[in-house]
Amino acid sequence: MSSTTSSTTVTSTAVMSTTLATPDGPFTVVARSGGAVLASGWTDDVASLVALVHPSIRPVDVEQVPDGAAALAGPVAAVRAYYAGDLAALRAVDVEQVSGPFRQSAWDTLRDVDPGAPVTYTEYAQRCGRPAAVRAAAGACAQNAAALFVPCHRVLRSDGTLGGFRYGLGVKESLLAREREADPAGTPAAWAGPTVTR
């Protein structure tokens, strides 16, 4: 698994974006050419994703390329593999996000939450090493720019309901169902799926 990095130096590496069709709608990846994902999500609005990137690494120019472009082959292949049932494929993709020490650590911890085994915000805070920091853990989810690659959708409210999700509860519910169905052995017996409250 590739970790979230904390580099604050903007490099000259070109930043590109591509949008591919998924069962949950258009999914856009913003990444360094041949490198790390800076932002991603279920939208075709590249500017809205770029706005999520920390100012110290936010690209000024983003070249839009077709989803078959070699420069973004790794992230695109991982998204396609995920939707084809290889839920571990996303872990091989580097992600670059910048924040303070707790949030950096929280994003790395989030990448270790297994598909089909969602955790509550309380459990997530415990995994981050700060059991009392439930709101800070929730904040790490809310500020995550690299959706799917850093799987904030795998965190639920303490009562088992979905909670929020930048791309809508329907997408979050779909992702959790896909992961539960693809890896039933990894799903805790007590978890029968999220409760949708809107």
Main attributes of the structure:
198 residues; alpha/beta; Double Stranded RNA Binding Domain; Arc Repressor Mutant, subunit A; 4-stranded mixed beta sheet; two-stranded parallel sheet; 8 strands; disordered N terminus; disordered C terminus
Textual characterization of the structure:
- With 198 residues, this protein is α/β, with parallel strands linked by helices.
- The protein has 2 domains: 4-96, 2-Layer Sandwich (Double Stranded RNA Binding Domain), CATH 3.30.160.70; 101-185, Arc Repressor Mutant, subunit A (Orthogonal Bundle), CATH 1.10.10.
- The chain has 6 helices and 8 strands.
Rg, Å, rounded: 16 Å
CATH architecture of the largest domain: 2-Layer Sandwich
Strand order of the largest sheet: 4-3-2-5
Number of strands: 8
Silhouette? globular
Estimated share of beta-strand residues = 15-25%
The description of the largest β-sheet is:
4 strands, mixed
CATH class of the largest domain: Alpha Beta
Rounded mean pLDDT is 87
Helix fraction by DSSP (H/I, runs of at least 4): 25-40%
CATH topology of the largest domain, by name, is Double Stranded RNA Binding Domain
What is the assigned CATH homologous superfamily of the largest domain?
Methylated DNA-protein cysteine methyltransferase domain
Q: Tell me the number of structural domains.
A: 2
Sequence stretches where pLDDT stays below 50 over 5 or more residues: 1-11, 184-198
InterPro entries: MethylDNA_cys_MeTrfase_AS, MethylDNA_cys_MeTrfase_DNA-bd, MethylDNA_cys_MeTrfase_DNAb, WH-like_DNA-bd_sf
Protein name: Methylated-DNA:protein-cysteine methyltransferase
Domain Methylated-DNA-[protein]-cysteine S-methyltransferase DNA binding: 101-180
Organism: Paraoerskovia sediminicola
